[in-house]
């Protein structure tokens, strides 16, 4: 039990005018004198009818409140911005930092002693973890859980991996409009986020891997009654975290981040998680270079047989034991001494855990693949680094040379990709420029460049595709993303021309433009920076301050001062 004076006590025990106001206004909402003497627990509810993944959060909040009351705390619900991946244009990534700022400031500005952060959809959990790192008051993550598996004709479907598949086959002429509509009605059949190992499931797993969510939280389906039980336990536990004064920085250590990376690599997790983990680490005052991810990937076997890199989905993962069972298998590779929100260490949490289905979670000694799901690529095309989810790549493209077919923007690509006169074949490398943090703007998930119509009709379903944007964690194929520096800031990626030969070598972690330096210097001298998209407001703030992908796409002014100073000294 900590002897430190709680924040709420400073508000409500004050005998001056402001103490009177705090007590009076709070009592007017029905809270009693006894209520305001207890630990005040903020419940960050990101419910929104514009966010399908969070449509059930109002119910979960009630179960959290029950847990808080039972543990001797007083719950107070508050809202923040909610980011629903399917709707926000040009991309929800444009608003992740805004949500992190919103959440941080709400946590710091109010008389709350601890907070339960309800997230789920792709950018919400990383934004909340970034905020928790910066505000550093007792915090715990509660994710909303994945949807049940979609079902159609006896087949198990997953959003949005099968969204890509169905629309691709419709474009190829293999599905008619009625069949496409039937699939639309079958794929999302419950509350919850995407049920494959996309970004939402990856970030929920990372929250557990970091120790910031209760064990087992990530995989429970949204509509399973045990999700309600988890919500109540989370409400109960945050009160204990306040009493024990355990804060995010006590939990999210460098070793905990390495644990989370290990879980991600063994899971075949989303490439987006790399950007988010870098941003979280930097909020904690740590630099997290891409080399760290690659080092951990090389020594972490791929164990989780989940789509888009495997056969099963989150429903089966839950039945196999979820993240705790995967971590039990990974235990020799983890830092077992790390503290978690349970008040126990990782090792203590895993003491009685076992794997319940070996078809889903493979043994460490008999992995699906000997190393992790994501590879970091370097070379003259991406001196700052780029990423590929190699577990979702067609094997024939692990080493490949091909001639570039270049699109200068998303609009250019949409206009020309299906032109029957496009000079392209299945060995070509599709290149999409100006899709990065500043160039797009916001680095949208458009890196899964469509297969040209004329190749689709010939049966081609994968090609090497390269962009400085992102992809959904539900994507599959030979997709190189997060090229840095991006085209819009003068990176070498912006100098590629049609017909240039590009070499991809995943085994040797290399991405190379086979054009001599003299020619590249000539092209660079003629390069013109694109006009900015915004002349006011949040968009202008984003363009002026967002960092590149390998620095987490955070705003430079949100980094701790020591990291800001280091960044300036390296420019």
Automatic annotation (TrEMBL):
Q: What is the superkingdom listed in this entry's lineage? A: Bacteria
Keyword Iron annotated: yes
Name of the protein in its database record: Dihydroxy-acid dehydratase
**Lineage of source species:** Bacteria, Bacillati, Bacillota, Bacilli, Bacillales
Q: Does the keyword ATP-binding apply?
A: no
Pfam families associated with the record: ILV_EDD_C, ILVD_EDD_N
Its family?
Belongs to the IlvD/Edd family.
What PANTHER family does the annotation carry? HYPOTHETICAL DIHYDROXY-ACID DEHYDRATASE (EUROFUNG)-RELATED, HYPOTHETICAL DIHYDROXYACID DEHYDRATASE (EUROFUNG)-RELATED
Domain named Dihydroxy-acid/6-phosphogluconate dehydratase N-terminal: residues: 38-349
Indicate the segments forming the Dihydroxy-acid/6-phosphogluconate dehydratase C-terminal domain, all copies.
359-553
Q: Identify the NCBIfam families for this entry.
A: PRK06131.1, PRK13017.1
What keywords is this UniProt entry annotated with?
2Fe-2S, Amino-acid biosynthesis, Branched-chain amino acid biosynthesis, Iron, Iron-sulfur, Lyase, Metal-binding
């Amino acid at each position: 039990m900590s002897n430190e004076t709680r924040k709420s006590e400073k508000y409500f025990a004050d005998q001056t005018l402001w103490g009177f106001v705090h007590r009076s206004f709070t009592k007017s909402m029905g809270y009693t004198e006894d209520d305001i003497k207890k630990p005040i627990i903020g419940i960050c509810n990101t419910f929104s009818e514009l966010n399908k993944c969070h449509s059930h959060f109002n119910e979960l909040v009630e179960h959290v409140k029950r847990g808080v009351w039972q543990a001797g705390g007083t719950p107070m619900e508050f809202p923040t911005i909610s980011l629903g991946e399917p709707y926000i244009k040009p991309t929800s990534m444009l608003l992740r930092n805004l949500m992190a700022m919103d959440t941080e400031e709400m946590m710091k500005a109010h008389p709350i002693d601890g907070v339960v952060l309800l997230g789920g959809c792709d950018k919400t959990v990383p934004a909340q973890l970034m905020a928790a790192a910066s505000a550093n008051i007792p915090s715990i993550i509660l994710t909303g859980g994945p949807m049940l598996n979609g079902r159609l004709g006896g087949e198990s479907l997953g959003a949005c991996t099968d969204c890509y598949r169905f629309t691709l086959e419709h474009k190829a002429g293999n599905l008619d409009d009625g069949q496409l509509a039937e699939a639309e009605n079958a794929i999302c059949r419950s509350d919850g986020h995407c049920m494959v190992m996309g970004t939402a499931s990856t970030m929920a797993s990372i929250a557990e891997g970091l120790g910031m969510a209760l064990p087992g939280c990530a995989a429970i389906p949204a509509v399973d009654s045990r999700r309600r039980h988890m919500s109540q336990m989370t409400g109960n536990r945050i009160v204990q975290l306040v009493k024990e004064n355990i804060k995010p920085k006590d939990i999210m250590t460098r070793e905990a981040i390495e644990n989370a990376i290990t879980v991600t690599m063994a899971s075949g997790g989303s490439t987006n998680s790399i950007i988010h983990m870098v941003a979280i680490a930097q909020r904690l005052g740590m630099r997290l270079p891409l080399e760290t991810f690659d080092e951990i990937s090389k020594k972490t076997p791929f164990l989780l047989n989940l789509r888009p890199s495997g056969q099963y989905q989150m429903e089966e993962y839950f039945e196999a034991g979820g993240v705790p069972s995967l971590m039990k298998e990974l235990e020799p590779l983890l830092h077992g001494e790390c503290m978690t929100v349970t008040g126990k260490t990782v090792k203590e949490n895993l003491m009685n855990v076992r794997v319940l289905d070996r078809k889903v979670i493979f043994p460490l000694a008999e992995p699906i693949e000997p190393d992790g799901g994501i590879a970091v690529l370097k070379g003259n095309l991406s001196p700052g680094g780029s990423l590929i989810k190699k577990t979702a790549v067609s094997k024939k493209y692990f080493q490949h040379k091909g001639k570039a077919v270049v699109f200068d923007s998303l609009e250019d690509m949409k206009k020309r990709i299906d032109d029957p006169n496009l000079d392209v074949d299945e060995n070509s490398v599709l290149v999409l420029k100006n899709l990065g943090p500043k160039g797009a703007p916001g680095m949208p998930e458009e890196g899964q460049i469509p297969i040209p119509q004329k190749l689709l009709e010939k049966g081609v379903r994968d090609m090497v595709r390269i962009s400085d944007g992102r992809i959904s964690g539900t994507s599959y194929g030979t997709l190189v993303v997060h090229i840095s520096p991006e085209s819009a800031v003068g990176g070498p990626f912006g100098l590629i021309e049609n017909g240039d030969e590009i070499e991809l070598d995943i085994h040797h972690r290399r991405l190379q433009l086979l054009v001599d330096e003299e020619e590249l210097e000539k092209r660079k001298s003629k390069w013109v920076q694109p006009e900015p998209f915004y002349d006011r407001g949040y968009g202008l703030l984003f363009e002026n301050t967002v960092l590149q992908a390998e620095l987490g796409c955070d705003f430079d002014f949100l980094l701790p001062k020591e990291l800001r100073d280091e960044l300036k000294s390296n420019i």
